[in-house]
Specification:
This is NERD domain-containing protein. The chain has eight helices and 13 strands. It is an alpha/beta fold and 318 residues long. It has a six-stranded mixed sheet with strand order 1-2-3-4-8-10, with helices on both faces. A four-stranded mixed sheet has the order 7-6-5-9, with no helix packed on it. The longest helix is centred in the last third of the chain and has 33 residues. The radius of gyration is 32 Å and the shape is elongated.
Length: 318
């Protein structure tokens, strides 16, 4: 009797820098004001959506009932300095899947030229806008991964890897927002095979694996492939929060400048009152007596430039 082992999903790296990035942004929004605050709040919303999208994909992978090694949030860099931050690399027995996660709001239309058009409704109106193609984005990721696998090999092996890379590596763009509707009826077959919803991910992976005619790797070989990629992962990355830190600092500088200006104006006003000069226009202050109203008979300092300047100060104010 044969022994059947249960398919195993191994998460070699299942964490993302996005959470730490989000925490930085949430601290910065406490300092920011005006347009800087609006930009930071918008980035927070985008980051939260991205984190939720990746969690949706990770859930699908963990419940795939397939043998696989999962790497999340991998940053690779070639010897020439080309970099790619890849949401997921999934190593299976026959194919490696390079997954770009998009948790987009609104509905997506893909035309015959491969353009992505998003339609969103707000203010009671529908708004259409073109967005950067996630297929193009993932093609760049694939190119960086290919070069990382090929470089530092001898000439023949490097050329062989570059030539055959697409046989074992497939690009998938996963739209992780369950409310997003994808209209791809005019898209090419190649595009349709790459852009899917999160609930189609496992079915698509199984279909592509079943169609692949290459010999399957053993679990040991799968692990070695995944670990080689993981060793190329760079932990020290560009700090994307730096841009928003500068925005928040500018807000603080403006606020401090305004406070300083207000204090200076207040001090100048007090000095002018003591010397009998109007703090608004610089004319002489004169002693007047109110003739009407509930303050009739009371004296006050008024600007000699009245009625052009209506500055007044009560006698009781210091």
């Amino acid at each position: 009797m044969g022994i059947f082992t249960k398919p195993e999903v191994v998460i070699l790296k299942g964490t993302s820098d996005a959470q730490a990035y989000l925490e930085k942004l949430e601290l910065l929004q406490k300092k920011a004001e005006g347009t800087a605050l609006e930009q930071i709040q918008k980035e927070i919303a985008i980051t939260k959506a991205g984190i939720q999208g990746e969690e949706n994909i990770l859930f699908e992978l963990k419940n795939s009932n397939m043998d696989m090694y999962v790497l999340q949030d991998i940053y690779l860099e070639t010897g020439d300095g080309l970099g790619a931050q890849i949401d997921f690399i999934v190593v299976t027995a026959k194919l490696n899947f390079i997954i770009e996660c998009k948790n987009l709001f609104g509905n997506i239309e893909i035309d015959s030229k491969g353009n992505f058009i998003r339609t969103m409704e707000y203010g009671g109106k529908k708004h259409r806008e073109g967005i950067y193609s996630p297929i193009t984005q993932n093609e760049r990721h694939m190119a960086v991964l290919k070069e990382c696998r090929a470089e530092n090999r001898n000439f023949l092996m490097g050329a062989w890897i570059r030539k055959n890379f697409d046989l074992w590596n497939k690009s998938l763009v996963v739209l992780a927002n369950p409310k997003t509707i994808v209209n791809d009826r005019f898209a090419t077959k190649e595009v349709k095979n790459q852009v899917i919803r999160a609930d189609q991910l496992i079915g698509t992976m199984k279909k592509l694996i079943s169609e692949n005619r290459e010999l399957p790797s053993t679990k040991k070989e799968m692990k070695e492939i995944a670990e080689k990629i993981l060793r190329r992962n760079k932990e020290q990355r560009k700090d994307y929060a730096e841009k928003y830190e500068k925005l928040a600092e500018q807000t603080e500088d403006i606020s401090e400048a305004n406070d300083s200006k207000a204090e200076s104006m207040k001090a100048e006003e007090t000095e002018n009152i003591v010397s009998g000069v109007c703090p608004r226009c610089g004319r002489e202050l004169v002693l007047r007596t109110a003739k009407k109203g509930d303050k009739a008979g009371m004296q006050f300092y008024g600007c000699s430039g009245f009625p052009k300047c209506r500055y007044v100060r009560n006698m009781t104010e210091s």
